[in-house]
Amino acid sequence: MEALHNIRLESLIDTLVSLTAAFVLGGLIGLERQYRQRTAGLRTNVLVAVGAAVFVDMANRLHGHEGAVHVAAYVVSGIGFLGAGVIMREDGNVRGLNTAATLWGSAAVGAAAGADLVLEAMLATCFVLAANTLLRPIVNTINRKPLDDESVEVTNTVYVIAARAHQKVVLASLEDELAHCSYPARDLEIHAFGQEEVEIEAVLAATSVDGEVMDALVQRLTAVPAVRQAFWSPSTSE
Q: Which residue ranges traverse the bilayer (predicted)?
């Protein structure tokens, strides 16, 4: 029988070493995740590591190193589906990316163990743990640092509300003022604003402007007889 023929003590011991290494190393990664109460904790990381090790070890026994390489490639792509399951989107924010990446690392550790590369699997475990522990204080420090306004790309927009009957005159005045300040408009739009008025929206090409210059520009526009209201607004939103 084929099943009895495949029973070999040496291969069985080799598989035991691979799976044990995957279990222990995956457990180390999972302990850190469990301690921080992440979605994928101790059991999940162990199962991913052991599962990857089983697939690679099985392919290694059946088809040698070439088969192990092929299966490892499938493990890399297949673990992506499991990682996608722990990624959540809440109020426009994506959560779980680090957990998904950790699962990917656990799969790599298991694949290395299954390919009889135990020392490499141990080294990979150290790097995964280092990424989740040693880099955490650096990330927290960066996240607590105030955002540098000068490094943020800002969209500056000038809004002018004017009488509909004089919109061409007001539009020409707006363009002249922007040209005088060397702040050309990247985009110009005119919207209806009530029954007798329009809103002219001019998006500036410049992402960095002088606030005092813009305030003076708005004051001059407000002095135009047909202008009901004028103001400018910086925005970092899309």
A: 12-30, 42-59, 71-88, 108-135
